[in-house]
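Let's sit down with a protein and look at its sequence and fold side by side. Once you have written the record down, we can walk along the chain together.
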Amino acid sequence: MVKEILEKNGVNILRFTWVGLDGMIRSKGAYIDSVEELIKSGIGLTMAMMSFTPMDYISPYGSFGPEAEDVFLTPDLSSLAIFPPSAMVICDLYKRGKPWEYDPRSTLKKVLQKYQDYTFKSSFEIEFYLLKDRKPFDDAKCFDSKAYYTNQIIPEIAKLARQNGIIPLRVIKEYGPGQYEFDILHKDVLRSADEVVIFKEIARQTAMKYGVEANFMPKPLNKMAGSGLHLNFSIWKGEENLFYNPNDEFGLSDLAYNFIAGIIEHAKALTAIAAPTVNSYKRLVPGSWAPTKIAYGYNNKSAMLRIPTPYPGMAKSDRRIEYRVPDPTTNPYLLLAAFIEAGMDGIERGLKPPSPINENAYYKKDIEDIPRNLREALNELKKDTRLIERIGKPIIEEFIRVKMAEVEEYESYVTDWEFEVYKGV
């Protein structure tokens, strides 16, 4: 029983957790004495929360307001995570006993049901900064050994993640001062998405314990590296990796190339979901180690899609593609639903990708750019009716409504940079 597990760990409140279309992780708490009953019934939640923005108000274009009825947070106990004093469980949203079509997690589950003959595997590389008073927690350089000497926060995050079934393969001191990366073991895509949410909560709580902020913004600091959420992906059938072909130059099957072609076909629309904040596009700039061109290549970190070099002796099991556009502000459920549908569209239509780019793609003028800002990306998503219909028209249209409110507030906001530059004009 969940109550007994909570008691054993000294936790009194179980957070019923969901991720909105704004990318925010939110929760409602069940007190320990009522937790078993609420696990069965769910906790009511106004539908208006799916029209909420990161600014913490309802989008003026949103479909739901205070008059909207309740849906129910229905916990998936396979996602139960305990890291005292916290405990959380990730929920699906149900309306009148059925999965709600505006719920990103239910949308991903619907996509998986559609392609149940396949097993989709994914893993994420989660980058973030440790900040104190909006400044880097340390001054360690890229891959700098001294970052590990006295840092208690990173090992504690790794330990708590492991205790909750999240297996960090690599823990890396990244490019920026105070910036770290956790590379997580691949799982089925639903669990993989859950692990992003759980990891962010563990990291934030652990950092806060030490008076530090775990910051997952794509670009929290000027003139320093951005933080990505690279998605590694492959398709399996039983024990067979369907992306693998030993006779291909890059070890990829025809099915993998079809999937890549689908991602390229829908690349501009996908960007709105993978990089869903105005801040995202301050990371996606030329020469930044983040992609700006719609291209793929073998181990090419300047391309949108990378074919990573497999680990020695693991060419078959480790053959995958890496999508480098996403950042940690994305909703991982909506991202995976959209990514799968885009790739499967390529498979179903037998699309062929262009030739791979195995040189620095940043300044190649003959390759199309991904959108340069959120408004442009949302307009590209609006135009991609084929992808919208595959994912689900209601949820994507609501996503656009939520994000347009964010764009419009930002576009009317006067920054310190503007004041300093233009005050004397």
In short: The radius of gyration is 21 Å. The mean pLDDT is 96.
